[in-house]
Design a protein that fits this description.
Blueprint: H1 3-18, E1 32-34, E2 111-113, E3 116-118, E4 131-136, H2 144-152, E5 170-175, E6 179-182, E7 198-206, E8 222-223, H3 241-258, E9 266-268, H4 278-289, E10 291-293, E11 315-317, E12 325-327, H5 344-351, H6 368-373, E13 374-375, E14 378-379, E15 388-389, H7 405-414, H8 426-430, E16 436-438, E17 447-451, H9 466-481, E18 485-489, H10 504-512, E19 517-522, E20 529-535, E21 538-544, E22 554-564, E23 567-576, H11 584-595, H12 604-610, E24 617-622, H13 625-631, H14 641-644
Helix pairs in contact: 3-11
């Protein structure tokens, strides 16, 4: 790794805490594969409260300055000032390693703010172009087949985390993955891909973090093996759910600060909470706004006495700063465990202190399969291994109450950050829906973001009703008349629309009939998927992103480049959280990698390999003349960040 990249990691961490980060330019090929198949016993400081959602949200046309001011990490003056100060001080002083002690690329960056740690990430940045995390199972002593047999025989369970290392469960680092080039939407006469053009936008997507309160007594944490269910809602990595989100956020924001310009915006494609609980939503808003985050609930747990050393300890999160962000509500944001309506019974169970059998109150859980396969319970955060408790009591917490759909939407609308309201429409929110249309780059009103709300009120899968479909048509017609590029965002993708009033086929045909629609960006499925939606009238790319909470736990950078003559290139680069070895972040990712082997008899390694064609991508398409002539009216960056920054990162652990 070059000295410039080494020094930049120090610069990024310090200036992200102290001031706004200065921009840094980098010089400008990763190999491209052609046309692959599509398919933690002192009182803990408490965070500043996130205000409750305003039941009558009204956008402020003149939003406050910075909603996320960063505190001075060194507020006390130096008692021994230098008698001979530097006449030309560095305006942005950075911590520097001592001679002979320069960290290696994989070493953790360790910084505290008022005694609270910022979760460490690696000294050097990387994307999945440079290195990737691959799940592992088996050792020389316990071969893969033997470990799988133990799982099948119920002799090795998902909550036996003390045995994970013994059986080789976790992940390993392997070589990075090149971009895969797709040109199925181009005419045969299209020019060859040139790696050149004008960068219209680059932005970041995160999906399905499912931030969870593992101590909540209403969770389905009991592990029972049944014919159709081999793992409950239990996730060993669940105690690290806020940490996983924060580590991904840090990873992405560092890359944003390293470009010739920061990201234009960020997309959060739903399921920010896991059980629609108020505290889960508040943790999300704190993670985005920055400041002190305390992931503990109920009693003040400290399983490893002392600060900054276990999952229940408060820590400092830097937030997303002034980067605009926009969200699409997901099923877990407003349903019990993501699949059943919130009721008086589920709410009482969540805010109570006793494990309650909710099966008789939730119709789908009353079925034989689910009753055999699930059991209520929680994780005991007073112990380092956070064991499962399926009967008895836990300290109650009123912040565990579940929010309604409108409360969740109002929470997003009133969340600190930019822009005010985050693009959402208060009139539509009042009706109980979260669809909206906005310009994510205000000074470039040629890119329109249309967000759909495909959530049902009683189940996890998608529903598109006629009123929203008609609204969508109006938005598409307006964008067409104004010659705008259109990105669609939703939590659910078209693959989750079985039984929807408006079918998946109808939606795909509608979107494909507008040549200015080039992307549909989704989550929900906890997997990376690429779908070419092509019809007789046109086509566009639909991309599902894997979840943060489950392996491979990735986020994604998009960059849209105009090549000229209507040709558009979309760079898609996946990010693994840059977690150093020996940290809580690494443990979380290892737990996530292991879990899939216990879930519905899945083979985590096979799934990881099978998703490879849908991770790092270059997608080419073309738009009509009237649209590209409108594109050419604006000034765009000559720097393609994917080519000059992301591709050229060097990581040498």
């Amino acid at each position: 790794m070059t000295q410039s990249f080494r020094r930049y990691s120090w610069i990024w961490m310090s200036c992200f805490i102290i001031t706004a980060c200065a921009e840094s330019k980098h010089e400008t090929e990763a190999p491209i594969v052609q046309d692959a198949p599509v398919t933690d016993q002192q009182p803990k400081p408490q965070p500043d409260p996130i205000p409750n959602p305003d039941p009558n949200p009204n956008p402020d046309p003149n939003p406050n300055p910075d909603p996320n001011p960063n505190p001075d990490p060194n507020p006390n003056p130096d008692p021994n000032p230098d008698p001979n100060p530097d006449p030309n001080p560095d305006p942005n002083p950075q911590p520097q390693p001592q001679p002979g002690t320069e960290p290696s690329d994989g070493d953790p960056i360790e910084i505290t703010v008022d005694g609270l740690q910022i979760l460490p990430i690696t000294y050097a940045p990387y994307t999945t172009l440079q290195r990737a995390h691959r799940p592992t199972i088996g050792t020389k002593v316990y071969e893969e087949s033997r470990v799988k047999a133990l799982i099948k025989a119920n002799e090795f369970r998902v909550n036996d985390t003390a045995q994970y290392q013994k059986y080789g469960m976790g992940y390993e680092v392997v070589d990075g993955e090149p971009w895969i080039l797709h040109e199925e939407l181009l005419p045969k006469s299209a020019p060859e891909f040139s790696h050149k053009g004008k960068s219209l936008t680059w932005f970041w997507q995160i999906s399905d973090p499912q931030i969870l309160d593992q101590e909540s007594p209403c969770r389905l944490e009991g592990v029972i093996v049944a014919p159709y269910v081999t793992a409950s809602a239990y996730r060993a990595q669940g105690k690290y759910s806020t940490h996983m989100f924060d580590l991904h956020l840090q990873t992405a924001m560092r890359l944003s600060s390293m470009g010739s310009r920061p990201f234009d915006f960020a997309l959060v494609t739903g399921d920010v909470a896991d059980n629609a609980q108020k505290n889960e939503h508040e943790w999300f808003h704190r993670l985005m706004a920055g400041g002190v985050l305390n992931p503990d609930t109920g009693a003040d747990d400290d399983p490893n006495p002392g600060p900054n050393n276990d999952f229940a300890d408060p820590y400092y999160t830097q937030g997303i700063g002034k980067l605009p962000w926009f969200t699409a509500i997901g099923n877990h944001d407003q349903l019990y465990m993501g699949f059943a309506p919130v009721t008086a019974e589920t709410n009482a169970a969540c805010v109570g202190d006793t494990v309650v059998d909710l099966f008789d109150f939730i119709p789908i859980l009353a079925s034989h399969t689910f009753r055999d396969g699930y059991q209520n319970g929680f994780q005991d955060a007073s112990k380092p291994d956070s064991p499962i408790v399926t009967t008895g009591h836990t300290p109650a917490d009123p912040n565990r109450r579940q929010v309604t759909r409108i409360e969740a939407l109002e929470g997003f609308y009133n969340s600190p950050g930019y822009p005010a309201g985050h693009g959402m429409d208060p009139d539509i929110i009042e009706k109980g829906y979260g669809y909206y249309s906005t310009y994510p780059i205000p000074d470039k009103p040629i890119i329109r973001l249309i967000t759909l709300d495909l959530n049902r009120e009683d189940w996890s899968e998608a529903e598109l009703e006629t009123t929203q479909f008609n609204w969508l048509t109006e938005q598409l017609e307006d964008a067409k008349a104004k010659n705008e590029l259109v990105f669609i965002q939703s939590h659910h993708g078209t693959g989750a629309m079985d039984g929807s009033t408006i079918s998946a086929t109808t939606l795909v045909n509608k979107l494909a009939s507008y040549p200015n629609v080039i992307l549909h960006i989704t989550g929900h499925g906890h997997a990376n998927r690429l779908t070419l939606n092509k019809t007789d009238t046109g086509g566009y790319w639909e991309l599902m992103l894997a979840s943060v909470i489950e392996f491979p736990s990735q986020t994604r950078i998009f960059e849209v480049v105009y090549e000229g003559e209507g040709y558009i290139t979309i760079y898609v680069t996946n990010l693994d959280a840059n977690v150093p070895a020996g940290t809580m972040g690494e443990e979380a990712m290892k737990y996530a990698a292991a879990r899939k082997y216990f879930s519905m008899s899945k083979d985590s390694r096979y799934e990881w390999q099978n998703e490879k064609p849908a991770r790092n991508l270059i997608l080419r398409t073309r738009v009509p003349k009237e649209i590209y002539e409108n594109i050419e009216k604006y000034e765009w960056s000559d720097v393609i960040e994917s080519e000059t920054l992301l591709k050229n990162l060097k990581y040498q652990p």
